[in-house]
From TrEMBL, chains A, B, C, D:
Top-rank taxon, per record: Archaea
Organism: Natronorubrum bangense JCM 10635
One Pfam family in the UniProt entry: ThuA
InterPro entries assigned to the protein according to its UniProt record, in alphabetical order: Class_I_gatase-like, ThuA-like, Trehalose_catabolism_ThuA_prok
Protein name in UniProt: ThuA-like domain-containing protein
Sequence ranges assigned to domain ThuA-like in this UniProt record: 4-221
Gene3D superfamilies cross-referenced by the UniProt entry: 3.40.50.880
């Protein structure tokens, strides 16, 4: 059983009525409900938000966290660098990190990728279809060969990230674009998964397939024991 | 200057009027024209076809070939295994190999990939848009961020190949599918590029962008000197 | 709990007294003992050998096998191509495959790699030290940063395989060579692990660290559900 | 012809007699001599050091630089973050970056890798032998299957970097360690090569094989045209 911490900026939901209508208790609560209600995989779920001391990500919290999910958008710059350092360090030690949608521009993701993580976008509410390009990947467990989200914000290529270790999903957009929507990385002993869907004005995190993906991803990103990471001078 | 051999099955063009109307001298001739007329990159081009002795791929021909292009469709099984052995051996020694469209099911490609190379398809003549997902790759030199082919056969995921070393193009199809359309591999000292476009009933190989890609790919796949590939028992 | 089939050529042990002294019941039995006695991971283990009908690898056996281990050396050519087809097909469907030592030249490995799988070697009985270069990998669970085998056959680079998806071990040899000793691949939905140690005249498979690696590798290579691998014409 | 800028911290050579004896004009001058004297590849070479304004890496200098080499050791922290930003940005735009030896801990390398870049080390002056594990790679052009450096500082695994896109060299050390000594990456449109040899108290950069590698690496890392890196909102 993985201990999961869902981090949410939690701003749009309190500032914008349209967002509050979709996610009245915050995006983190909706994601938490999805993970907590999974009948196949047992997760221990908690949440943390920007306004909490240390953004809710104290050393103790991170120490106990197996997998951290990250949703942010308008306040990336307000995330304290000391917390980013801590998240990076914990990932390298083995904590899983799942970065969601607009989190592509978050400090922890950019720090771990080493690139701008830029992309193209258009907020048009058109249809997205996610294709499984790696049907043997555990993050695809239980999915059909593709699934649709009827209304999404479009993200288009190029996506300025390092070539993924493994690409699980590619999105097709009604407007004519494609996007590498599910990208797996390892950094140090930690597993990272970037998952594109999740805009604040659409109920993406209530979608069954999206919930299946997130639950699978938590399972996949959970730490294994590994062997010692010993560095420095040797005799 | 690379010496290029374009291999074509050359059956459809002689059996089917519709194909002959598009490629009267064979797909190989149209591809050869494109490469020969490139003003930026200088190639020495020749062709070979199934009906020739050794399918035109004698040891001498392969020895002199820097990059081999391969188009086949209905007669994959008629390609002699001894020639496949020879092609594989030359690729491992350093010869480049560019596999086109329905060549995904050719013996040399399946041999070098180790997988079924299966995919989904639909011959509907709808539009394909190829997106450059790796704008830093030399095979994308001189292209825009995407380009369109107004009428193509659709190829859809999953594509049963090993994860590419580097993915250059992803295709968007009007009918709702995506495909990893430009896949780079190295096997031994040889560079391989799979490029999806190229159906026999559409004039794909007259398209300027497609010609740009093939010319770039020949340049990219050309052998480098490397260091010795010495195997066996050591003292 | 994974169902494991250990395949062994089982020739050296019956033909050569020195080998019989080390592996009186066959290499497969010693490997089976190691897996069966693992206290941390529960495996269901059986064995198969060259001389059995279908080399012990009938469709039923392979259908029930989650992970296949493969040891062969002097009789690679005697393995029937129909069985190789079957093994390849099952791997692509999801069965794990662990290839041991001289199995680098086995038909199933060469088939799935698409390369010669050649290397350099010297049978000198000198020391090998395996370093974990990927301490975050589950195959390294519970190991120290390195471990030694006091007497081994040397395998040296270059090793003519595709670049591994992930490299877990690199070997240091007393005589001055290095080797990529633990290489992970995915082909289709199947996970492959090549593990170098295991010569027939040294009791390598009785070594605790080697046993730990094999048990971890079985766990890692076990199939996941994934999503459908549907190919062919679409409406 | 690539325009190359060799950056050197240039401290040890002015503070330590032993280092000055090996590199009287600075490590950068010795590297520059090697590149300038290459008879096979034509480079335009200049140098830059820490004490210069902007560390010699103004926007103009970087704009004109095709490939930047980086040697640093004791003063990594004195490198201004604004210059690191500039280097990162230029790499993502396509500038090649070759990081040497103790540069593994430099700010630009850590920034682009996203990891600690830690390793094990021992300054014992023992022999290193570098094996070419990828004989088809252009960085290995003209080398034998291995080459030796009679006296080096040892670097050992684990090396906390992302899995290389391609691994060219693995080092064997007399004292019993191994190291991934030649690691290729792409970040954005830029090519990165980490090359291990190069300690300040050994004349490593006068070695013919090391010079061959650096010259090949400059050639390999030089920018290609690529296609547009266009990001942001689309209509």
């Amino acid at each position: 059983m993985a201990t999961v911490t869902i981090w949410n900026e939690f701003r749009h939901e309190r500032e914008d009525e349209d967002v509050a209508a979709v996610y009245p208790d915050g995006i983190h609560k909706t994601i938490a409900d999805g993970l907590s209600n999974d009948k196949e995989i047992d997760h221990h779920v908690r949440t943390a938000t920007l306004e909490e001391p240390d953004h809710g990500l104290t050393e103790d919290v991170l120490e106990e966290t197996d997998v951290l999910l990250w949703w942010g958008h308008e306040a990336h710059d307000e995330v304290d660098d000391a917390v980013v350092d801590r998240v990076q360090e914990r990932v390298l030690e083995g904590m899983g990190l799942i970065v969601l949608h607009s989190g592509h521009y978050s400090k922890p993701f950019k720090r771990l990728m080493g690139t701008t993580c830029s992309l193209q976008y258009r907020e048009d509410g058109a249809t997205e279809r996610l294709w499984v390009v790696d049907p043997g990947h555990p993050i695809a467990d239980g999915l059909d060969e593709s699934f649709e989200l009827p209304q999404t914000e479009m993200y288009g290529e190029p996506f300025d990230v390092p070539e993924p270790d493994r690409l699980v999903f590619v999105s097709w957009f009604e407007g004519g674009e494609v996007f590498r929507s599910g990208c797996c990385y390892r950094r140090g002993s930690g597993r990272l998964f970037y998952f594109r869907p999740g805009h604040e004005t659409y109920p993406i995190y209530e979608d069954d397939n999206v919930r299946r993906v997130l639950s699978n991803a938590v399972d996949w990103a959970s730490p294994t024991d590994g062997s010692p990471r010993t560095f420095g001078e040797q005799e």
